[in-house]
Design goal:
The protein has one domain: 3-Layer(aba) Sandwich (Rossmann fold), CATH 3.40.50.1450. The chain is built from 5 helices and 7 strands; from the N terminus they run H-E-H-E-H-E-E-E-E-H-E-H. Helices cover 28% and strands 17% of the residues. Strands 2-1-3-7-4 form a 5-stranded mixed β-sheet. It is of the alpha/beta class.
Length: 180
């Protein structure tokens, strides 16, 4: 897979989309999908919103190897239970990187140029189950516009979140349970 951490896989060519489809096409190993964020800080809640939408749209109609973790569990608790020596992990989160609100970024922990890649103050490389095989850990992030105290996503981040959800639903065979 051609995923590079040094630059976002986004933009007009939507390279993130192809990378995300490729990741989800591999059904040989369990794949955990986890959303993280703070819903009380506007766009910081985008990861939780993506997981909520996926749970509604996919319902029970998803491949058996895909585990959707509900947004009611804390990120550190969920992440500490995943063993990436034999399982894969995709984290949805707000990611400050390019300064372009709404930009979608797909990154592999293994390709990260940062030795201390973290999501919500959880350094991913020090969690034993994740550090054991960083090539099985990925982050799909959206550049936030608003990180103020408040609820709800900005329009540009909501639109990007909808794009990510549509790609995931399509890649997983498109569920019909729940809301569109």
């Amino acid at each position: 897979m051609d995923i590079e951490q040094t630059g976002p896989l986004a933009g007009p060519e939507r390279r993130w989309e192809g990378g995300l489809r490729e990741l989800l096409a591999d059904t040989r190993t369990p794949f955990h999908l986890v959303g993280v964020g703070n819903p009380m800080r506007c766009d910081d809640g985008v990861g939780l919103e993506i997981i909520s939408q996926l749970l509604r749209r996919l319902g029970r109609r998803r491949p058996k190897n895909v585990i959707l973790h509900p947004p009611t569990d804390t990120a550190d608790r969920v992440l500490s239970r995943i063993d990436c020596t034999s399982e894969r992990l995709l984290i949805f989160d707000a990611v400050e990187a390019s300064g372009m609100p709404g930009r979608i970024i797909l990154a592999s922990l293994a390709d990260s140029k940062f030795g201390f890649f973290a999501t919500h103050n959880v350094p991913l490389r020090i969690i034993p189950g994740l550090a054991a095989n960083p090539s099985n850990v990925f982050v799909a992030g959206i550049e936030p516009e608003l990180l103020d105290v408040g609820e709800g996503l900005s329009e540009v981040v909501r639109s990007s979140a909808d794009d990510v959800v549509s790609v995931v639903v399509s890649a997983l065979g498109g569920g019909t349970d729940g809301l569109p």
